[in-house]
Specification:
Layout lengths: L1 E3 L6 E3 L3 H11 L6 H16 L12 H18 L6 H10 L6 E3 L3 H10 L4 E5 L5 H7 L8 E4 H4 L6 H11 L7 E4 L2 H10 L3 E5 L11 E3 L5 H9 L3
Parallel strand pairs: 1-4, 1-6, 4-5, 6-7, 7-8
Antiparallel strand pairs: 2-3
Length: about 230
């Protein structure tokens, strides 16, 4: 079995996080240039998601996840000099709750097809709000995945081992026969490893240096990795 993270692994903001955010701001009568918004989002990422710890409870319910992103967009708006407006922050958050604001990475469908051809079962384990399920359906991914564990529904989030155990129980697989693919070392690699699952880190941009796990630059590398692992030595 192969489990996948969603955001940053299968899905990316469309056309981009900056453009979706700018559209909401423009609709609210706030004109913001591209470069300052890009820098504001980069700074918010570093401030909120760049630390060495992760509180899984902040991703374990719809209300908690919404609060994380409201805090995030408060940082973004402060950086570009826009007074904080909770309703506006909520509008930005909600703008990412529809399939139109997301696209598949180009390597997703070929990889899923190759894995299914090999008879592998596939699933999703993602720290996301309840909007992920309709997004997955709208993007045609439901046909590929036997299970989708969303933290807002499961009540548990990465890197807690229980969210992975829940997915394994749902699809009837063991940790030893499962791989997990994600783009965040702390949540995905350490979380999967804590559940006894071998992790694979997807690092399309080459952001990571040395890490103690398998690293791929494209998902299309994964079928070959699996075949190599299964081949007699």
């Amino acid at each position: 079995m192969v489990l996948f993270d969603a955001g940053g692994t299968l899905l990316r903001p469309h056309p981009s996080q900056e453009e979706v955010t700018a559209r909401v701001l423009t609709e609210a009568g706030i004109d913001v240039a591209g470069d300052p918004l890009v820098e504001a989002i980069r700074a918010a990422n570093a401030r909120l998601f760049g630390g060495h710890g992760r509180d899984a409870q902040r991703w374990a319910s719809e209300s908690a996840i919404r609060e994380v992103w409201l805090e995030y967009y408060e940082l973004v708006l402060a950086r570009i000099g826009v007074p904080w407006d909770r309703a506006l922050g909520g509008r930005i958050y909600d703008a990412f709750g529809v399939a139109e604001s997301w696209a598949l990475f180009e390597d997703v469908l070929p990889t899923l097809a190759a894995l299914r051809t090999r008879g592998l079962r596939l699933g999703i384990v993602s720290d996301w709000g309840t909007a992920l399920v309709p997004i997955v359906h709208a993007m045609g991914l439901s046909a590929h995945f036997g299970v989708a564990v969303v933290s807002a529904y499961a009540g548990v989030a990465k890197p807690d081992r229980d969210v992975f155990a829940y997915a394994l129980a749902r699809i009837g697989a063991t940790a030893e026969e499962t791989l997990y693919v994600g783009d965040v070392y702390l949540a995905d690699v350490l979380g999967a490893r804590g559940a006894g699952i071998e992790p694979i880190l997807i690092d399309r941009a080459g952001r990571f240096g040395f890490v103690d796990c398998v690293v791929v630059r494209s998902l299309v590398e994964i079928p070959a990795h699996i075949e190599a692992a299964l081949s007699p030595s």
